[in-house]
Amino acid sequence: xxxxxxxxTGVPGARLPDEVVSLPSAFIRAGFAGxxxxxWTVSEKSxxxxxxxxxxxxxxEGKQPVQALARxxxxxxxxxxxxxxxxxxxxxxxxV
Length: 96
Description:
Organism: Methanothrix soehngenii (strain ATCC 5969 / DSM 3671 / JCM 10134 / NBRC 103675 / OCM 69 / GP-6) (Methanosaeta concilii)
Structural class: alpha+beta
Largest sheet: 3 strands, mixed
Domain CHAT: 1-95
Keywords: Membrane, Transmembrane, Transmembrane helix
Strand order of the largest sheet: 1-2-3
Number of strands: 3
Protein name: Conserved domain protein
Order of helices and strands: EHEHHE
Pfam families: CHAT
Helix content: 25-40%
Number of domains: 1
Number of helices: 3
Strand content: 5-15%
């Protein structure tokens, strides 16, 4: 499992023909079971909160990664400071 929590890690390249694959897709092709990437520039604070909760749910509570990510996103958007999709919706999972 690869977690790419920086800005725009899930955006496919567009300059060269071989860049049409996104970084998460490249990890899948390299043998990783799954990868999480982001689609736009993300907030440091909300991303840190999202990733902390994601890892708690996945590693400590035993949720599947896709379930852990969805739950962490849901919990973050329930926080009135981070209700807007900008703060939580950039992240998606590719793979298992």
